[in-house]
Amino acid sequence: MENAQLITLSRQMSLRNQMDMVANNMANLTTTGYKTQRMVFEEVLMPLAEATEFKQGDENLSYVQDYGAGLNLLQGSIKLTGNDFDLAIDGDGWMVVQAGEQEAYTRDGSFHIAPNGMLVTADGDPVLTDGGPVTFTPEDGKVDIADDGTIVSELGIRGKIRVVDFDNPEDLKALGSNTYTHENPIPMDKPRVIQGGLEESNVRGVIEIAHMVRITRAYETVSKLMADTDDLRQQAIQTLGRLEA
Questions:
Q1: Residue 214 and residue 39 in contact, taking contact as beta carbons nearer than 8 Å
Q2: How far is CA 149 from the centre of its chain?
Q3: Is 229 exposed, middle or buried (0-12, 13-18, 19+ CB in 10 A)?
Q4: Do the Cβ atoms of 107 and 198 come closer than 8 Å?
Q5: 208: which of 116, 135, 159, 198 is 20 to 30 A away, CA to CA?
Q6: Sheet harboring 102-106: ordered strands across?
Q7: pLDDT tens, 147-169?
Q8: What was the pLDDT predicted at 72?
Q9: Which residues fall within 8 angstroms of residue 209, CB to CB, at 6 or more apart?
Q10: CA pair distance 198, 147, nearest whole angstrom
Q11: Is the separation of the CB atoms in 176 and 97 below 8 Å?
């Protein structure tokens, strides 16, 4: 019976983590460029406790464990804002930003000009071009960004927004602030950059609510199974206690 409770407990813990992830998706329903996350599970086989006095050897028990999150990379809708420094990518590709000491990748193109003139993300991270961060001055005037990411001001070409892609985008690892890391970025020569637009979150509220209902029902079922198993154990103890030696 203890084995049964341990198995149901592993499932219960995974369901709680799964619910946390669904709740996080719901919280990012309106976050620019956010990608829906899904819990990834695996089966873990573990042996029974040692019982060498029995004739048959130990059998394997099947537990469930959540070991990571998968990304739904489906593109979200593009909303036009009219802001010259709002950028969206239509199709494949990720914009490159400088997050501390490392490069990071994002689909959140809600950029702006910092007080020092640098083009930065909403969190203040520099947006990278093919020549590194780009800084504008009042002499630049109006800034236009072409479909391929080329930045043109009244002073001429100021650089090109770096856009990369990945052979294995499922290996993206969340860094925080809607950015990700990856070991093998591949430069894109002809991305489709949209100036004055933002990619909306690809979270679908109705789908997430359906997941919440399903997870809640599964959790209740597992909880009832645990309670029933505990009742059986108590009955067994009481019955054995009444037997005469």
A1: no
A2: 26
A3: middle
A4: no
A5: 198
A6: 173-176, 179-181, 102-106, 94-99, 163-165, 186-187
A7: 999 999 999 999 999 999 999 99
A8: 92
A9: 26
A10: 14
A11: no
